[in-house]
Design brief:
Blueprint lengths: L1 E6 L3 H16 L3 E2 L8 E6 L4 H17 L5 E6 L1 H4 L9 E4 L41 H9 L3 E3 L1 E2 L11 H4 L3 E2 L2 H13 L4 E5 L14 H9 L6 E4 L6
């Protein structure tokens, strides 16, 4: 069996796609770089707005057009939860959201379940950019966004009428602080110069486990080393 993995989405969905790749590798499932050479094609999607949804559907069309007749598509990411009707016409063997990646356990023979595959800190889908001699603050942020990342939570506490992402990512689920600290220490010990804290709403971190984001940040910046901390998707509320 050969599996092709692709991604259209934000930094968090790119980490999801990398986690899928890591899951397949640890279970000795062959990967291929071509959808024309696969038995299953897995596409991790984005549907934060109409433009990203259109990009995801366009990639789905492209992959579907390249597949053999007996090959199947698995659609992950946000699109299946936000616009399930949009994928109804494709030969979809299964779907998963950012909060239900364990669905892959029912689709592939495995010894290591998805729950035992930790979140990666980098993704093969991150763009590789040359470092600039003189960086603006935005350049620095973008570089850190594509560097060493640590996922600290999923979901949010909001009920914003203009946002559909919660339909895919759900209610806030803060990861244990010890797990986060271990990941940061591991990166710093390997010489990482930046650490990007990632989450659906990093500002809400800890509200479900009796702590606050400031508690986590205090402990993270206390780790000895030459590095800078960046924060992704922070809701000031």
């Amino acid at each position: 069996m050969k599996v092709y993995v692709d991604c259209v989405g934000c930094e968090q969905r790119k980490l999801d796609a990398q986690r899928v790749i890591d899951y397949l590798r640890v279970n000795d499932i062959d990967l291929t770089d071509s959808p024309a050479d696969c038995d299953y094609a897995i596409l991790v999607t984005c549907a934060v707005d109409a433009s990203n949804e259109a990009n995801s559907l366009a990639r789905l069309d492209k992959i579907g057009g390249a597949l053999r007749k007996d090959a199947k598509i698995i659609v992950g990411g946000c699109l299946p939860s936000i616009s399930p009707g949009k994928i109804a016409g494709y030969p979809v063997a299964g779907t998963f959201s950012p909060r239900s990646m364990e669905v892959l356990d029912s689709l592939f023979d495995h010894q290591t379940p998805m729950d035992d595959v930790r979140y990666p800190n980098r993704s093969t889908f991150d763009p590789q950019k040359e470092s600039l001699t003189h960086q603006t603050p935005r350049d620095e942020y973008d570089a850190a966004k594509n560097g060493f990342k640590v996922v600290i939570s999923q979901g949010c506490l909001g009920e914003c009428s203009y946002c559909v992402i919660r339909e895919a990512t759900g209610r806030l689920d803060s990861f244990p602080p010890e797990q986060i600290m271990e990941a940061v220490r591991r990166g710093v010990s390997k010489g990482e110069k930046t650490v990007m804290l990632m989450g659906g709403d990093t500002g809400a971190y800890g509200r479900d486990i009796g702590m606050g984001f400031h508690d986590l940040l205090r402990d993270v910046v206390a780790i000895p080393g030459d590095y800078r901390v960046f924060i992704h998707d922070f809701n000031v509320n």
